[in-house]
Amino acid sequence: MKHTFTILSMTLLIPALSACGDGPKSSTPWIVDRFDDIKVIRYEVPGFERLPLEQKELVYYLAQAAKCGRDILYDQNCAVNLPVRRMLETVYENYAGDRTTAEWKALEKYLKKVWFANGIHHHYSNDKFTPEFSQGYLLDVIETIPEEQFGDLNPLRETVFTAIFDPAKYPTRLNQKAGDDLLLTSSSNYYRGVTQTEAESFYAGMAAADAGNPEPVSYGLNSQLTKDDAGRLVERTWKVGGMYSAAIERIVYWLEKAESVAREPQKTNIAALISYYRSGDLKEFDRYNIGWVRDTVSNVDFVNGFIEDYGDPLGRKASWEAIVNFVDSAACHRTEVISSNAQWFEDHSPVDPRYRKEKVRGVSAKVITVAMLGGDCYPATPIGINLPNADWIRKEHGSKSVTIDNITYAYDQAAHGNGFNEEFVLRAEDRERMDKYGKLADDLHTDLHECLGHGSGQLAPGVKGGELRSYGSTLEEARADLFGLYYLGDPKLVELGLVPSSDVAKAGYAKYILNGLMTQLARIEPGKNVEESHMRNRKLIAEWCYERGAADKVIEWVKENGKTYVVVNDFEKLRALFGELLHEVQRIKSEGDYEAGRELVERYAVKVDPTLHEEVLARYSALGIEPYGGFVNPEYELVEQDGKVVDVKITYPADYVKQMLDYSKNYSWLPNVN
Ligand code: ZN
Description:
14 strands; five-stranded mixed sheet; disordered N terminus; single chain; alpha+beta
């Protein structure tokens, strides 16, 4: 896949104390809201107050820009999302009737879910939400509210009702079932009225025209593909003056403010990003990315744009996202040590020497503090980032890798003492190791995955990188995860002083296998298979190792007191299996072996055992742990004196509903239909 998938999702890990940095301290509860399978957590931004004024101001402007693309993501996720959200918000803010009834509560929960998912489909499973209130109830509630409150939503009432209540309409945001027309059966808005065959041949034509270009353009990344009146395929580009212009103009407005306070080389980079937003020219986006990846000196950094292609069944079109962050200088040297040994790791990797990189370039890794999340990073958010995605830029100019410390810290705080280990981990020795080293193992695995895994390896001559198509993202995540798992158990980590003993790897391995074989099923609805690529990747690795190690009982299923457990008996052999699978997955990527890739994913990564699934869901719900988490953002305010900015104040709101309504009121510019 051209755009390497690079954002990690938080696995369900158990906390130890924050391994580095001075963790934020506050008495406000970490979990600010819970509904359905979701918990909303707040995060703090330690160190913000200590930033110099110009950096605080820069964070403020970039944070404003990060909030301005929210509507874009809603519309990308599904064309009816904006009217659905707005109609329900109008109801929520104006209904004067009884708010204590079960149906009202159900409506409120549905709206909270829509906000969390940026639309009517679950952010992780991609399935459409099922409302627990009736069509009649919503109609009754609407009729108590003056019609003018709904303004231009009135003509869209039927569209909205169909979207919410008709299960046959927009059933899934992202369908990846082999054999289906993936575009006609997916409800995302990246393609309109276009079949999969039409889209594939359209972009194959562009790629052919670009053949031999050492700097291939990421065609299709920033546009919707549709048809004009004459039935010809056309792209509607997301830029100033193009599709989503009203939101992009606001993003540009705040980026210009940011440019005015930034220093070189960041100033020039921001100007390049603005220029790209104006022109929509993807060559300019590449130029911007090169500047961005080369800038390793700016303390405040950010992502703002059309970045990840998880949401497109063809892995081409990118959702809008934003993150603002700064370097956590108090954090430990973990990633620096890993990065400065990048070549050693590459040279010793268990893959075919032909597919190792001779020279690993520009792996820059930092532990960062997030100051603002936006678009596809909000409220559900990654814990690590590795960008840019274009393979040739990564090869020629390297990539930037970050681990987000204040987010993992908040997750850990929120999960503390939730009973997960006691319920799912059979052996006391495993529980003890996880308690002691779980957080460190997870952090290290994330670092290795992001700093080294995605950047490792090379393609065989003539292989472009898009050959694995819809299996590309799962296999890319598997490659990075396996790289991380393999080295997590390497004595080199002890030698480098990164871990005290092999117990860290044992904690990480036991947890990974448990999650991949079993506990991640808590995130899947009954009757469904595994769809999301990070989850598929974990299942692929765990199932493959289970099967390959079965003769030696490397991994074993154990039944006790009517409950199912999974235990790792031989950590050394498991590590060897990780190495073997890494060898094969790298070969598949390097050679673009679609058939072998398809076989691996379809055989190990997709199908769910319904009996085990039911058991996991029951045990999970008995614990009362929501399997998904997301965040509310802090708020920033300029403090001015005599027309000059003298400080930026940060506050930590703890009201999810209020933040969502506020964003919808103050950061919303797109029309209902785009
Ligand atoms: Zn990744």
